Amino acid sequence: MNPRDKKRFREEKRRLKQLGNQRARRSFKALLRDHPEEASHVTQPDHGRYATSHLNGRDRDATRRPQAIPTQPTLASEEEADETA
Q: Region Disordered: which residues (predicted)?
């Protein structure tokens, strides 16, 4: 991904997240004001069309790829090595 495109993408996602948080806070305050008994059961905020979950994982370049984890010898392979020695 081009660095300019990546920067523009991050800025767009940041702007969407801000709009979504503003909407969620506003809707929660309205729910609290109108129906306080239902507001205590709300667990996930409603971001509506400003949700950014569909944008996650789009920039798959070298900085986002998982690094190879070196494997450690298992206990069984250590016992086999002791027996052959």
A: 1-85
| Cβ-Cβ contacts under 8 Å for 3 (sequence gap 6 or more) | none
**Is 71 domain-assigned?**
no
Give the count of domains, the chain.
Answer: 1
Return the C-alpha torsion angle 8, 12, 13, 17, nearest 10: 150
Say if 20 falls within a structural domain: yes
CA angle 32, 36, 38 (to 5 degrees): 100
State pLDDT tens for residues 28-72: 888 888 988 887 787 777 777 777 777 777 666 666 666 666 666
* Secondary structure letter of residue 82 according to DSSP: H
